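Record type: monomer structure entry
Structure origin: computed from sequence
Chain ID: A
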Amino acid sequence: MIVSKKLSKFKEISHGFFDKKGGCSKGIYRSLNCGPGSKDNKKKVIENLRIVKNKISRNSKNIFLLHQIHSNKFVFINKYSKYLKKKKADALITNIPKLPIAILTADCAPILIYDKQKKMIGAIHAGWKGAYKGIISKVINFMIKKGCEKKNIIAAIGPCIAQKNYNVKEDFRRKFLKKDKRNMVFFKKRKNLICFDLSKYIKSQLKLMKITNLDTINIDTFPKKNNFFSARRSLRLNHDDYGRNISLIMIN
């Protein structure tokens, strides 16, 4: 488990960006696959989620997960929410203690957020689609609507695929440049390939929202040696599926 130095300063919350070590799954899912949507044995995934929850807190509620759809939709969970049913969205916000909220990734960027005054947390699944569609600004604006202030928000961007391993096509680049010509800075030519910097793009969006208290964990999920599940690496190895990394945050 990897933690953000900035989020770790606050003892009233627990959080973690988990790699693929420490679980019970086998084969291509070895070992801490937390993806219910994968083709892994469901009992193994449930056990892996239990392992993760206990690492954070044995006294907490079950981890709340989403049915992620690469959107800009988010779910707010308060004491009145009927949150038993899995929602289709890509970000969670809550102010409920002992409720771990989590998102799953396999190259996309996980973002964990905390407002130290309002005691509100958020977890965002930011792939290029969600980031492009504005999921980050939507979450921040909602938190502000609920009384949070930008100066009190801390955001940590977790491990995701690095630019050198994120090859994209020309139409992908054109899409971003059509939206804003300044997006050119997130692309780089490398050995005749176009590479996209997802982490840098996400960081720029947080800065545009005037979130300055940022932490970026610069670990590339693509290389096998870094011990993270990677959709792109699995595709290159001709696997028919891949495991999911989990990142979660909870108010203690």
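Annotation 1: The chain has one domain: 7-162+197-251.
Annotation 2: The radius of gyration is 17 Å.
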